[in-house]
Each structure stands twice: as structure tokens, then as C-alpha cells.
Amino acid sequence: MLTPIPLDMYIGEFKLFLVTVMVSGAPVSLDGCVLIWTLKKNPNTPDPGLIQKRSDTTPPGIAITDPANGAATLTLNPADTESLAAYAHYQWDIRSKSSRA
User: Fold this and answer.
1) What three-state secondary structure class fits 83?
2) pTM to 2 decimals?
3) Is the residue at 78 inside a domain?
4) How would DSSP label each residue in 9-71?
5) Element (H, E) at 79
6) Total domains present in the chain
7) Which of 7, 36, 58, 66 is placed for a possible disulfide with 93 were both Cys, Cβ 3.0 to 4.6 Å?
């Protein structure tokens, strides 16, 4: 489970967010996983979101930096946030690479 953390930033700002996936205080191996981060205006709607970053794209929006220790870096570029409103909600998904979604 990921513990929610505030992602404070200004519209149009470049930002790196370092995250560690942990369960009961121990890091979770990300070997064979795809990380997906989605930013939405309303978390209860089925739309694809305002921004989506994935670890399985080129270039990746999420870099898995230390898979054995659950570490990853989310990168938000200025162009990602230039047209966003003041507040939005985000969620993380962790899937196995063999997942079709």
C-alpha cells in the first residue's frame, strides 16, 4: 500500500518526487512491476485523467530506480502542469508487467 504524500508544486514547475513502496514498514520489490501515476480532477470518474505517467513508456514518466528496495522517481515537467487547475487528486497503481491493462 502506498501512503498518500502531498505533491505540492506550482503550475508549470519541474518537479521530481522520490517514492518508496512499502508494506508494514518494509520495501516491496518492484521487479516485474509497472508503476502508473494518474492525476484527475475528480477521483470518482472513470476518465483517463489529466496526466498519466507510467514506468513502461519511452521515455518513462516514472523511473524505477531501485526495484529490489521499492524505489522510484516520478517526473513532472512544466508542460505536464501548465494547463491544470489549482487542485487535483492523484492515485498510484502497481501492476505486474504481464498484466494487459
Assistant:
1) coil
2) 0.80
3) yes
4) --TT--EEEEEE-EETTEEPP-TTEEEEEEEES-TTS-S--SEEEESSSSS-SEEEEEGGGTE
5) helix 78-81
6) 1
7) 36
